[in-house]
Structures are given as structure tokens and as C-alpha cells.
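WARN no homologs supplied; continuing
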Amino acid sequence: MIGASALPFVMAFWQANDEERHSEAHRLMRKLASSHELPFLLKALSDYRSAYRTDAAEIIGLVGDTSAIPSLESALTDVDVQVRKGAVEALGNIRSAEAIPALMNALDDADSRTATAAVNAIITIGTDVAVSGLVAALRSPHREVRYKAARGLGTSTSSQAVSALINALEDTDSLVRAEAADALGSIGDPAAIAKLQELSSDDQVFWEPNAMNSPRRLPPPQDLKHLHFAFTPELYPIGELLGRETVRSDGPTERVEPKIPGSPGT
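OK structure emitted
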């Protein structure tokens, strides 16, 4: 922690119109970030220099004090995109459900990088409250945000998440549709089966066998055999429809014995 006696000197270096001095102060405060420096950092969010405001937001996030959330929320309307993005990332670093409403507002940011940072922050917070934020993110105008939101909802089993992901199967972007299907397969809720069957005729879904190969288009399947992202052993009806062959996203086609309720071992 920077002692009370040393803080005025650090503040002077921070505020100086000297990049080297400011960088040194930033480095020190970043390394030793604590609530002791928070009052100064909150004030620095209003500095006339956008780079300094961005630096302040970063360190506030490292401090992790929830009392800074209102000030960071105000910074989400900053004219500078880097400041807004920095405020979003700081809210995520605080890791409090109290930040979710502010982050939901940032999902509508005109800058896709800031909006994507917001959905990443919501995923990082990871509380039950975050589900509402991710559902809201599925309505974002930015494809990257909707894609990440669908992926994040794949770890939830709430009916709200399942309903939103089923709706996302009709997204205008094929990558978002595929990620929504993948998430539903991970959740394993039978309520999604009918829509997943409809998606089996979607010829715009891509499959990437592994990171070394480029994506290739799958042929339109006659059944769900090739709908690899919809399969999990726990999703019994899909397992029945798939039979014993499924395509995995991390490797070649392999044979899988689906777990059918009532069968040995279930």
C-alpha cells in the first residue's frame, strides 16, 4: 500500500504533463492498488486527458471496491471509447453482482469491442444474476456479443437461459445459431429438442474439426447425425435420433453409445 505520506508525491507524478512520470506513477499505483488510493483514482476518472482516465479505471478495477461501481458506471458514457472499455473491464474485475446492471447498459455501446468486453465481464462475474445480463446480450446488435452470450449461457440450467437460447436458434447469424445449439446441447434440456431438429436443415452452420484445420461446411443432414453441437450423452432423445455416430468438434467422427433412460448403466 502507498502510505499516506507518499501519496501526494505519487499524485503529483500522475498528474504531471510528463509521460514518463505519469507512467511511473501508474506502474506504482497499479502494483500496489488498494482502497487507500481510491479517492484519488475516482477523481482521476474526470481528468481532462482520456489516457489518464483510462489508467484510473484500470487501477480502480484492480482495487476491487464495490463503492467505485457508480463512478465506473458514469464513465460508461465517456466520449472516449478506450475509457468506456476500461470502465467495463474494471466493473468485471470487481466481480460483484452489483455491477451487472451497469454492464447490461454497456451491451448497447456503439463500439463492438466495448460491448464484447461487457459480455465478457458478465460471464466473469458468473452469479445467477449474470444470466439476465447474458439473456439481454443475446439481443445485442453486435454478432460477437450474441455469440459470447450464447456460449456463456451454456453453463446455466435455468429456464430463462434455455428459453433465450431456443430463441437464439433463429438468429440471423449462423455462428450465433450454432453456438446457441451447442449451449443447449451442454444444458441438455429436452425442451430444446424440437427446435434443434429444425436446425438440422441449416446448411450455413460450420464445423471446425480442430484448430489446425480451416472450417468446412457440413452437408445438409437428413437427420441429426451431423448436428454435433446438439449432442450430449445426457440429452436422451437427441441420443436416440443420433444413433451411435456423432461428430465431435474436437476430433473425427466417433461411435458413441447414447444413454437411453431405462437401459443398463443409466
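Residues 187-266 form one domain.
OK
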